[in-house]
Amino acid sequence: MRKPLLYTLLALACLMTVVPLLYMVSLSLQTEAETLSANAVLVPDSPQWGNYAELFVRAPFGNFIVNSLVVAGAITLAHLLFDPLVGYVFAKFRFPLRNTLFVALLATLMVPFFVRMIPLYVLMATMGWLDTYQGLITPFLMDAFGIFLMRQFIQPIPDDLISAARIDGASELRIYRSVILPQTRPALAVLGLFTFVFQWNEFLWPLVATTTPEMRTIPVGLTLFNQEYFTLWHLTAAGSVILFVPTAILFVFTQRYFVRGIALTGIK
What we know:
This protein is mainly alpha-helical. Helices cover 72% and strands 0% of the residues.
């Protein structure tokens, strides 16, 4: 009795997740008249594949895609470079005020971004970095959550492995590269996926830090199709589909590491 009920609940949950996505795809293939119809059109009579091409005519959508890839990709690479390194230091090194500094680092997770946004904006404006890649990327080069995740994953690694490598004459950098990193691949996959998806969908900071359409990312660029008195729903949906595709592809390729990383992190 429990299994059929469980399967029914899982099927309903999957349906609730998939239906909005399918309707978004349907909406992206409808005409403007169909999107404004009083009755919702689930399957368009004549799919308008030209809606995707129209995105690049109505707005510099190619710039939006490139900007999103550059910003999300650079921030993800920075997290994969710096977060495991700092996490390794907190997990395996002993130094004064280590625990105090780690608690202070975690405390920053409780500070809303809205509180930090104004000082960040003033700093970027003072440095002349508004409407630039460095202004979009620099404030997010490291993340307290990523450091915490990597520290928790690295901490259970036996100290004997590190000691044996030191006895063999390995430098600290060699130990980190050859002993620590190979054992943290699942956690790195989780960190990379979380970071890329979050930054790919980030809206607020690119909205504040950019002033020209050419520097906007996809989430901010979609606002061009949403005006005060009208919304081009078919183009907004088409842009949203393009926004969704890269994260879906990334999840497909990292799913094995993602599931394993979540499981191992929970166990450890």
